[in-house]
Amino acid sequence: MTKVLKYDNVLTTRVSNADFRAVCERADEEELTRSEYLRYVARMVADDATNADRGGVLLDGRSMRKLSRELVKWGHHYNQGMHALNSIKFALEHGRGDLEWISGKLDECALLLAQVEEGRSEIASELDALEDRAIVGGD
Fold first, then answer.
1. What is the pTM for the complete model shown?
2. What is the DSSP string of the chain?
3. What local confidence, expressed as pLDDT, does residue 36 receive?
């Protein structure tokens, strides 16, 4: 059974057809009613003075999931690259590992760190795309 919240205050506003469709679509995507969605947006801006001054960006669930997956992948590759570098350091400190082994490990590090850079670039692109999808504030 759905819990119905009763609020005494009502806001009324006029919006363009495009804005109305955008609110409806985003609310549907997040499985919220229009009222729940608009309350969330209002609280997001009102609760953060800095955000309210510059306008806010409400991230949809799909964008957050994409960014989260990329950050996890980025962190994994970074961690693996550092682990490989540490194994080289350990081997050198203890007189182990030949030039071929070290060369292979350095190639592995370069590959993993290149993947980190690729992930960083993808995240930067995602953030740039989110800027274009701002639904609160802005110019």
1. 0.43
2. -PPPP--S--------HHHHHHHHHHHHHTT--HHHHHHHHHHHHHT-HHHHHH---PPPHHHHHHHHHHHHHHHHHHHHHHHHHHHHHHHHHTT---HHHHHHHHHHHHHHHHHHHHHHHHHHHHHHHHHTT--SS--
3. 83
